Amino acid sequence: MRRFLLLLTALVAAVPAALTAAAPAQAYAGAFFPTQSSGNRGADVLAIQHLLAYHGQATTLTGVFDSATVTKVKAFQAAKGLGVDGIVGPATWGALVVQIGQGTTSDAVKALQVELNAKRNLSLTVSGSFDAATDSAVRTFQSHAGIGVDGIAGPITWKNLVWHYDYPAFTNLCDQDPDGNGTAANWATAAAIGQVEKAAADFAATGQGKLPLGDAGFEHGGDIAGHASHEVGLDVDVWPIRADDAQCTAGRITWQSSTYDRAATRQLVQMIRAAAPGHIMAIWFNDPTLISEGLTSAYEGHDNHIHIRYCEKIHPNSLYDC
């Protein structure tokens, strides 16, 4: 009997381990390390800069993939025997990320904290110390992502976290909901969010009001009501500007409306392009003057909103491959 009880105890103890082993290795089937390159900005770029510092290639922490970051990426790639192109694609991401857990102190932890703050709307101190709060945030994310919950940021956790969409700060944006999708439809990739936030900040500095944000996408992508696209986190809708600067309070207009401000909208589109050099696939808005100037393109149904399609180098979807 004693032998039987010992065997039974061993089998019961093995069940949690078996269940853990059977847990999905990657919750988001389409998750990948999004390529970042010159002209990108946002949380993923800032994380890359912290990871470069961890690997001895420190650069200024701008959150912008500038020429200095390109130089440091190339140096890192050369040191790791990777193709030297200054572009952080899946292979370079895979070499940059490191496995870390509670008790670790490093620039890699700062990168992790930046990602957690952006992707989970947290306010962790970016201290570089993998403290109890960071451990809790990692475990919560792992549970959210449906991957093994162990508090350790390894390759699978990093990939799911970096891929996860970002949520905008509404400092210079106002949230509009023309299609009934609510605040749940404000998610996009870290680069798209960083780039539209920069354009909004530049526009707000002109004193012509905030930028109205329509739909972007859902937290993990997928079909979104009222849109045939907006599924991969790189499509963002914003509204044209009104002559009374009341675009956040007085409702949406078309380019034909008497209150439409073409000069301000032109300025906005120029700022959108300047905030994401080399990362704009298209801007659809049917103002014929802006089309003739090469700032926007015509597309059916785009009289009353500006649809920005961002793109990345080496994107798995050809519609978003720069």
Automatic annotation (TrEMBL):
Pfam families: Peptidase_M74, PG_binding_1. Keywords: Hydrolase, Metal-binding, Metalloprotease, Periplasm, Protease, Signal, Zinc. The keyword Chaperone does not apply. InterPro entries: Peptidase_M74 (IPR005073), Peptidoglycan-bd-like (IPR002477), PGBD-like_sf (IPR036365), PGBDSf (IPR036366), Zn_M74/Hedgehog-like (IPR009045). Residues 41-96, 106-159 form the Peptidoglycan binding-like domain. Residues 1-27 form the signal peptide. SUPFAM superfamilies: Hedgehog/DD-peptidase (SSF55166), PGBD-like (SSF47090). The keyword Metal-binding applies. This is Penicillin-insensitive murein endopeptidase.
